[in-house]
User: Fold these one by one.
Assistant:
Number 1:
Amino acid sequence: MCTGISVFSTQGNPYWGRTQEFDMDLEYAGLIMPVGASVNASLTDYQTKHSFIGISIKGVNMVVDGVNDAGLCGGSFYFGNINRYVPQTEIEAAGKTALAGEEFVTWALANCRDVEEVREKVLREVAISSDGGVLGRSLPQHYVFQDLSGKSLVVEPSIPGSFEIYDNPVGTFTNSPKFDWHVTNLENYVGLSDQVHQGRKIGAADIFSSGKGNGLFGIPGDFTPQSRFVRATFLKHFADQVEDEKAVELIFHVLDSFDIPKGVVVTGENHKVQFTQYTSAYDLTNKAMYVHVYDNRQIQMLSLEEVSEPTHFEIVEKQQIAQMKKL
């Protein structure tokens, strides 16, 4: 249950952000991977051609989302029921590199400079395997990328041993079903507006307006992927465009609409709780990452810097509250 958006400043610079929901408590950390670092993936080892920064699980040299030194940004999102993975042996027999579902974004940031190189390399070089996985299984995932050109690309492993690839002109991303379905579904909501509808006279009756914000009446408010895609698309579409210094702030304002408190979404017989574990935002131009976590709403920041080996950085989870000062 994740939601991703891209926004552009008035200067034309790209920014990207996402919420990360899961039904398992994970310990997250910032991670910087240098050029030439060894990535010990669960199925295939390789070396990084690009340095990158992102959100990792503590002790694991893999990112859930991140940005590299060329300004390519991307994230991994849950893609249940539609992913079509194949065994490692089948992938290697085709002369490709086998990756577990959650490892693909790390591979892309380590190997590609922009979305066009992602498009070119994925069909030729890699496939997602049903084997392996950082958590003991290859998670059902699909992926979105954004680069400095402003282009966004969706990569979905919905074909056994291969991918379906889409340009993403709306700059929004969630979960299943497939991306093209979500874009078509927007046709049902083209009547949404940022304008307040005025009252009108019907017969002899004066019918008053239902209130502020009624131009968005009918926008879906639940947490299904279909509803979140629509809501994210129109919230960022109607939001005022801002300058660079306010762009990250805008991402957090929009994504706050998708924050899931613990206990609101419960799944399965074991009553697993889905909640928003973190929200991240990326400045692609300056290769900087911003994040707040469930228990600490203070935004924490990390910039891509030169390191000699893979380096993890602490994300403070205890709430930080600033004391007011006298004016």
Number 2:
Amino acid sequence: MDKRELYDNFENMEEMSRDVQAMLASVKEEMTRIIEKNAELEIENQHLRERLHELEQKKTQETSNEEAGLSKSRKNLEKLYEEGFHVCNVDNMYGSRRINDEPCVFCQDVIYGERH
């Protein structure tokens, strides 16, 4: 191997070394981008989990409140009933005055009855 070949080989190796270095820099940049994106997604994921947990707790609390008492719509019907009006639909009585505020089993079933 003469000096010229040796010099050419060194130049080729130097060029290949620069190419490898450029590829490594590119891979490093991409890896940095991926790590940053991953961190962002982990934070977003944690926030979403916390929000979901809050919503589930709120839903559970609302369900237990409804089970403990009347729902808002049934409370409205109860108020109408207590004001002396029918809230049942037997013989199209809904909204008509209860005579002498006498109790109506059908209205009470609409307000307090079990619903499945």
Number 3:
Amino acid sequence: MYPSLEGKVVLITGGATGLGKAMAERFGAEKAKVVINYFNEEQEVQGIIETIEKAGGIASAIQGDVTKEEDIKGIIAHTIKTFDSLDVMINNAGIENEVPSEELTLEDWNKVISTNLTGQFLGCREAIDYMLENKIKGSIINMSSVHQEIPWPHFVHYAASKGGVKLMTETLALEFAPHGIRVNCIAPGAIDTPINAEKFSDPELKKGVLELIPMGYIGKPEEIAACAVWLASKEASYVTGLTLYADGGMTQYPGFQAGKG
């Protein structure tokens, strides 16, 4: 547990399912004040709020589309109005879809880039602006992916967006370090979330994924949430510009494991 997170105001975009849900519930368990942004999962959000409140935290929810500048501004405004501050901003909302690159439409490209990269930029910009104005030494966490490092055929738009998140994070970390604002990102590997449920329900597909993970198992959302609370806490007070890979070793060239190659 991280006592420094008690009472801190944490905003999580895409917080209704998967990694966002796990992070919201973990910050709630740390007795933080959690704002959950969601797109169209209103019923799911109510259950998360109840879980957080049972754990001793406080939570609020707000609908919004992270690709829209006015929605991001509204999400930030709701957070400040509700809890009088913003200490931790987690840009988690993201999407993906598989398309051979030669068939990828501009519409599909723009949709993924707008959500995964532009949406995160808008969240960073608005949070940083508030933190600067109010002299808050806050923490910003951007959700990336191992595919900021590992090429992924048929997902060129997704890989490009996550590569952008990496350098955006590093650039903002360098720019705002003098103000005490830390900017880091988490790059998960294969995690057992709803977006991966269909793939992991197929034994052959799951076996193929497991062969890429030296630790030999699919990660749990709670393991990513553990990374987030550490990065947001005082325990990571000297950490900025970091990509924290939580991938079971997937980025460590698993094909060379056991002396292969």
